[in-house]
Design goal:
Protein name: Aldo/keto reductase family protein
Number of helices: 13
CATH topology: TIM Barrel
Mean pLDDT: 92
Low-confidence stretches: none
CATH class: Alpha Beta
Keywords: NADP, Oxidoreductase
Distance between the termini: 41 Å
Helix content: 25-40%
Pfam families: Aldo_ket_red
Shape: globular
Order of helices and strands: EEEHEHEHEHEHEHEHHHHEHHH
Strand content: 5-15%
Radius of gyration: 19 Å
Family: Belongs to the shaker potassium channel beta subunit family.
Largest sheet: 8 strands, parallel, barrel
Organism: Pseudokineococcus basanitobsidens
Number of strands: 10
Length: 336
């Protein structure tokens, strides 16, 4: 496993992060989740990402239990705050001082730790003054409950405003967690250049496009039984955008590229995002330990320039690159 610095800080994380969105506490049983965490540790992964909203706090609990007994100093534990949790009351969502202050305590308890390495604003809150949010994060850092602060799916302008306030308050934003893959490149036009300027790294999610870039979905054929495309608990909806025969056919054209490089399709997809020098780590999810080992092998892989060009040519206009899609990801109304 290789490691990279996160943003303009001295904090290093593994190039592959194990994440438990859509899996722990919902799609897979706890013993399977624990087996995947053990596989991640065996593969040299030291960085783990979750969020209080995943499975309505259950994912944090499962991860905390799975990591219990590990040397805390050898782990980097990330979680997030924003989404509705608990009974979803009027203050159970957003980035208000109240919600951040109460949420960090709940996350610490569920993760069975006295500090969070990276505490992230899961989305931008259009209803809370940014000054209030940043002051609350500053207080969380000063109290030692979080060591670093990051955000997720913020636009370039939001990153710039948040970074400036953070500096005024004596801390820094060091990361942004966006969706990024060979098929979804909306951060490249504005978010990545701004992040480089501000000293912010990307912690990217969905590098294999919900599994589509593994090539297991074939045009004109039924989705494999047990795959995300057949999951009625949420996975099917998330992957729907990629399930057209045109996109799936283009992905099939990547198989010779992966074969020539001695990589699986999943490894090619994960290695592709890691070629971007502003990406610090790629988050992988898994329902089986063998998936963890396969994806983790993408660490340290260099894809030659001609292969990168072939990937671009094969995917063509199936690639989504409109920067405005980042702005669309933040809720414009409070979920109750």
């Amino acid at each position: 496993m290789d490691y990279r610095f996160l943003g303009n800080s001295g904090f290093k994380i593994s190039e592959i992060t194990y994440g438990n969105w859509l899996t722990h506490g919902s799609q897979v049983e706890d013993d399977a989740a624990t087996a995947c965490v053990r596989a991640a540790l065996d593969a040299g992964i030291t960085t783990f990402d979750t969020a209080d909203v995943y499975a309505n706090t259950r994912a944090e609990t499962v991860l905390g239990t799975a990591l219990k007994g590990e040397r805390r100093e050898s782990l980097e534990i990330f979680t997030k705050v924003f989404g509705p949790t608990g009974p979803k009351g009027p203050n159970d969502t957003g980035l208000s001082r109240k919600h951040i202050t109460e949420s960090v305590e709940g996350s610490l308890r569920r993760l069975q730790t006295d500090h969070i390495d990276l505490y992230q604003a899961h989305r931008f809150d259009h209803f809370t003054p940014l000054e209030e949010t940043m002051q609350a994060f500053a207080d969380v850092v000063r109290a030692g409950k979080a060591l670093y602060i990051g955000v997720s799916e913020w636009t370039a302008d939001q990153l710039r405003a948040g970074s400036e306030l953070a500096r005024q308050l004596g801390f820094q934003l060091i990361s942004n967690q966006p969706q990024y893959s060979a098929l979804w490149r909306v951060i490249e036009g504005e978010v990545v250049p701004t992040s480089r300027e501000l000293g912010i790294s990307q912690v990217v999610w969905s590098p294999i496009a919900q599994g589509v870039l593994t090539g297991k979905y074939v045009p004109g054929q039924q989705a494999p039984e047990g795959s995300r495309a057949t999951d009625d608990k949420g996975g099917k909806d998330m992957i729907a955008r990629w399930m057209s025969d045109d996109v799936l056919g283009r992905v099939q054209d990547l198989k010779p590229v992966a074969s020539d490089l001695g990589l699986s399709m999943a490894q090619l997809a994960v290695a592709w995002v890691l070629q971007n020098d502003n990406v610090a780590t790629a988050i992988i999810g898994a329902s089986k330990p063998e998936q963890v080992h396969d994806n983790a092998a993408a660490a340290g892989v260099t894809i030659p320039a001609d292969a990168m060009a072939t990937i671009d040519e094969a995917l063509g206009d199936a690639v989504v690159s409109d920067p405005a899609r980042t702005h669309d990801s933040s809720p414009k109304q409070r979920e109750a």
